[in-house]
Task: inverse folding
């Protein structure tokens, strides 16, 4: 029933190394836990006697209408959670009306996913490995394959220090990881490269992994179509701020110019509503989708997403805001209890 139930059921089904890879974070996992806690440091402030007989979670993203503000976050090696992998999760996303973002490190190539699941709104997540020239070719390819946007992940110049993965090294079937093989991340990537990538991208390019309003401004100045406020789900630098704690200042800086998205610890419909109130246009959901996939393949992932969306609609009704687009800063307050 609850997100914690799905997580517990997934844990039972996954081997310890896969569980460590999916569930774990960096260091002492301070940020991993704080991402979840962060949303709960905000309290909702409902209004009453508002006609909520019709709730509309619709939004627009990159200028296009979306049925609701939830996307599936890019995550590597989904075949390790369930044999249907990226294809199963992308189909679940499509059924739930969520856009699906394919990782560079996926077990399914961009073309194979596009052919298997042509009708879901597909985004692509880009890691720069090797050099910029190869990345530009990838951008062209995914644009031709109908991926509507690219998230350039910038919080991965080196791999985070993850104890759980060192305790339970995961050595999945090489067939699962061939797509990801491509060497180490390009640690030298900088703002000038971002300008080059934006100029060479046939689709809108958003910068994923921003935690500081100054970096959000720089991204906009380089031509990015948006920013994703993210700390990589607590997997990279431990002890950084929870995304719920930095979202508002980043949205204040750039939400007038570009779309601001957020991820990290979004588990409940109330978390989605808090994110909207703090200035996000949409949220990406990571691990809960993997738990659904591990438990029930495509149907499990779809159930997790539909549950989150039903909760979001209920939260909007109970908040007295029938349209998601009307959620604003006066619908939240810092809690007194944390
Ligand atoms: C198992 C796993 C693999 C991930 N792989 C990627 C990846 O390949 N590229 C990327 O940009 N982010 C990756 N992420 C980060 C997610 O896109 C997202 O930022 C994060 O999971 C959101 O937090 P949540 O899991 O608490 O919802 C990964 C996260 C997990 C849990």
Result:
């Amino acid at each position: 029933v609850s997100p914690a139930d799905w997580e517990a059921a997934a844990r039972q089904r996954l081997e310890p190394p896969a569980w460590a890879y999916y569930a774990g974070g960096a260091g002492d996992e301070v940020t991993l836990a704080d991402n979840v806690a962060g949303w709960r440091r905000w309290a909702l402030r409902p209004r009453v006697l508002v006609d909520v007989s019709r709730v509309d979670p619709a939004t627009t993203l990159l200028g296009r209408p979306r049925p609701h503000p939830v996307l599936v976050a890019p995550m590597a090696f989904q075949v390790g959670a369930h044999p249907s992998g990226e294809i199963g999760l992308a189909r679940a996303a499509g059924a739930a009306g969520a856009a699906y973002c394919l990782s560079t490190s996926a077990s399914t190539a961009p073309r194979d996913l596009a052919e298997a699941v042509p009708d879901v709104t597909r985004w692509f997540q880009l890691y720069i490995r090797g050099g910029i020239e190869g990345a530009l070719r990838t951008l062209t390819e995914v644009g031709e394959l109908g991926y509507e946007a690219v998230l350039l992940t910038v919080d991965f110049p080196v791999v985070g220090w993850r104890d759980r993965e060192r305790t339970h090294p995961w050595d999945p079937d090489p067939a699962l990881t061939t797509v990801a093989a491509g060497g180490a991340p390009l640690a030298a990537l900088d703002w000038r490269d971002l300008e080059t990538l934006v100029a060479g991208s046939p689709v809108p390019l958003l910068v994923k992994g921003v935690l500081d309003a100054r970096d959000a401004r720089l991204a906009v100045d380089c031509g990015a179509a948006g920013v994703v406020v993210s700390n990589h789900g607590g997997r990279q630098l431990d002890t950084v701020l929870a995304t719920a704690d930095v979202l508002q200042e980043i949205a204040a800086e750039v939400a007038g110019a570009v779309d601001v998205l957020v991820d990290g610890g979004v588990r409940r419909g109330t978390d989605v509503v808090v994110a909207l109130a703090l200035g996000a246009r949409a949220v990406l959901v990571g691990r809960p989708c993997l738990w659904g996939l591990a438990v029930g393949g495509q149907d499990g992932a779809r159930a997790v997403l539909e549950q989150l969306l039903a909760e979001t609609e209920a939260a909007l009704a109970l908040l007295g805001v029938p349209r998601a687009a009307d959620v604003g800063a006066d619908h939240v307050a810092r809690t007194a209890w944390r």
